[in-house]
Predict the structure.
Amino acid sequence: MAVNKMLKCLLLTLNFLFFICGAVVLGVSAHASSNRTEYQITDELLPAVHLMVGVGAITLVVGFLGCCGAAAESRCLLALFFLGLLAMLLMLLAVGVLGAMARTDTAQDLVRAQFEKLGPLAEAPTEVQESFQSVERAGQCCGFFKGHEDWSNSSLEVPDSCNCTDTSKNCTALLDGRDVFATPCLPYLLTWLDRVSGALMGVAFALAAVMVIGMAFSLALMCQVSVGNKSII
């Protein structure tokens, strides 16, 4: 029985897409992992991001193996491709579960508890202060729960990142004459957490669906190669 050329072409195309997707996922997730402040990745989301780094790296290797296996009609390479897809499928399901857990009330309560341990912010380590000031500029907010009071009771210790430059926002005046954002940053952070976890879940389950198709194609091609080898014997 000859190998179906259409199936072979589909598998080659699918593996090329795997290779491209693996490069993109690896690049974005590695950058997000090394720049947590910029992407505002919390401790609850970090394991999912690390898993996405692994998925991206394995996808590159698996895509290469699949292309070689389909082109050479090698059962060994196709079997390795199938096992690689199975491993990535399990990792992606784990990413989806971690993303779903990050959206639960329990995870949000943990975020609140971690923030409570950091206050007052004026006494926190320098790197923590700088990271949170980046969040305040991005979210146009100030402090964790109570606004500028989370920094200090003294208005002189409230950083410039809290300065309210947008008159349409909810602002409050300090004793030193500055206007600062009256809205605390916790709602902004929880909204961001929900969006990022939702994006992780969407990417994970979309890639998982494509991988199931790839596993089906590889099994079909392996069967055709096996039947073809027996007919030659």
Notes: Helices lie at 5-34, 36-39, 46-72, 75-102, 105-118, 126-139, 186-232. The radius of gyration is 25 Å. Residues 107-187 form a domain with the Cd81 Antigen, Extracellular Domain; Chain: A fold (CATH 1.10.1450). Residues 186-232 form the longest helix (47 residues).
